[in-house]
């Protein structure tokens, strides 16, 4: 079992490096993270974009990226399409969004004929170190699905369990997180949580232990769970936190980053290869963690 983000970085640096194709790489932040990833032995890169501009930026920024292949593309759409093509043809292992709109990147990724579609829902998962024990928290979905219904939540959960198991969490504990730990008919997300818990109990959701609803405190703190008289295998010991919607997930992701000042990585799953989609406000270290997580998943030949 991978017990920390540092362990992810260490493991990936000792594995054969995967190649990341970057759509619209003419951006100093992209060049900085690529340089850092290469220096730490985490990944190799192919840059797609304005070839002359990228070469000029590499020279003027004194980056040591002369060995990186640069493929010219004239527009954002062409960059995204070429990046996806490189992955489909096995010239690269995964695509990364550079300086272009997310919608343009995703459109190419999900193209029905030339994209990276699979039969699974595309979902996002935030990964961070646990607070007071060895292990990782997997928080989902913080970026892709806005207001998931019950069936969509089950798909998000199954994706998260799949990834957690690849990372060594054989039977991950899943907490369905809402604003409170009791079922309240006025709050539909608590009803969804109760139904999903029962589905797991009856074997409709496998390879994990699911319980909920939980409030955040009693999902991750045994002390809090005990204070409120909440028992069970998941109470206070969750590995996966399934949030009720993107509003909760996005705020939680940013609270971890800015209030708690903890490192985070992000995984986009549900396609035939993981997608590296980092925020411009992410630190270099957080971007490296996202790259390392995706690289590790590819290295296990289970994505």
The gist of it:
This protein has 303 residues and is α/β, with parallel strands linked by helices. It has helices at 5-13, 28-39, 51-60, 76-88, 102-109, 150-166, 188-201, 216-220, 222-227, 246-258, 284-299, and strands spanning 18-23, 43-49, 69-72, 94-97, 123-129, 136-140, 173-177, 209-214, 240-243, 264-269. The protein is built from eleven helices and ten strands.
Could you characterize the architecture of this molecule?
The chain has 303 residues and is an alpha/beta fold. It folds into 2 domains: 5-117, Rossmann fold, CATH 3.40.50; 123-259, Isopropylmalate Dehydrogenase. Helices cover 41% and strands 18% of the residues. Helix 7 links the parallel strand 7 and strand 8. Helix 2 crosses helix 11. The longest helix has 17 residues, at 150-166. It is elongated and about 65 Å long.
The total count of helices amounts to 11
What is the CATH class name of the largest domain? Answer: Alpha Beta
Q: What's the helical proportion of residues?
A: 40-55%
Q: What is the strand arrangement across the widest sheet?
A: 8-7-9-6-5-10
Within CATH, the superfamily of the largest domain carries the name: Isopropylmalate Dehydrogenase
EC number: 2.3.1.19
InterPro entries: P_Ac_Bu_trans (IPR012147), Phos_Acetyltrans/Butyryltrans (IPR050500), PTA_PTB (IPR002505)
Keywords: Acyltransferase, Transferase
Pfam family, one: PTA_PTB
